Amino acid sequence: MAVKLNKREKIGVAAAAVAIVIFLVMQVLVFPLFDKNAQLSRTLATRQQELEQIRLLQAEYRKTAQKAEQAQRHLKTRKRGFTLFSFLDTLAGQTGVKSHIAYMKPTTTTQKDSPYRLSMVEMKLQEITMSQLLAYLHGIETSRDMIAIKRLSISKGEQKADLINTVFQVETLEM
Predict the structure, then answer these.
(1) Minimal CA–CA distance to 166: which of 90, 135, 94?
(2) Same domain for 2 and 49?
(3) Phi first, then psi: what are they for 172, rounded to 5°?
(4) Which residue has the higher pLDDT, 161 or 69?
(5) Structural domain of 34
(6) What is the pLDDT of residues 79-121, one digit of tens each?
(7) Residue 173: is it exposed, middle or buried by C-beta count within 10 angstroms (0-12/13-18/19+)?
(8) Are the CB atoms for 172 and 148 separated by under 8 Å?
């Protein structure tokens, strides 16, 4: 049972068939390609951001590794038998504050999974001038032995107003 169509109806059916084929091709091929392209563009942008972050982390890691290597070299160039306590005692004599030492309390902490231990000395200096304190602290901070002042507290002296008392902690790594 064939349906007889006139020429105009045949053209209309053919146009509808072409429109349906074009619609199906667009839905099945073209639109998925555009969607995939947009998705790939978003993925590429994300990956580029991740790559930039990795590069920044890599640069930070290299700086940290260089600092660690430099610290190891400094530790290896220390005098044999170096101790923080003896260093501070010797420096106190050189800067003229040895007679003002109220106490020196050394402590040592071993570091997990490390050949180093953290050596710390808490120290109190009484009735010293600000220039004496600055000379002593300068000697500590400029030492090539990787010594750092961790905490510092300064108060007025009890007997003379121009003198001060100070308590501070100094630390370093030792082998």
Answers:
(1) 135
(2) yes
(3) -160, 165
(4) 69
(5) 1-77
(6) 777 888 888 999 999 999 899 999 999 998 887 877 778 889 9
(7) buried
(8) yes
What pLDDT score does 115 carry?
A: 77
| 3-state secondary structure (DSSP) of residue 143 | coil
Give the whole-angstrom CA distance, residue 32 versus residue 159: 87
Collapsed DSSP state (helix, strand, coil) of residue 18: helix
Final residue of a structural domain among 77, 93, 128:
77
| DSSP letter assigned to residue 29 | I
Amino acid in position 123? M
For residue 108, give the amino acid letter.
T
Paired with 125 in beta bridges are 101, 166
Query: In total, how many domains does the chain have?
Result: 2
Alpha carbon 149 to chain centroid, angstroms = 20
Q: What is the pLDDT of residues 31-89, one digit of tens each?
A: 888 888 889 999 999 999 999 999 999 999 999 999 888 877 777 777 777 888 888 99
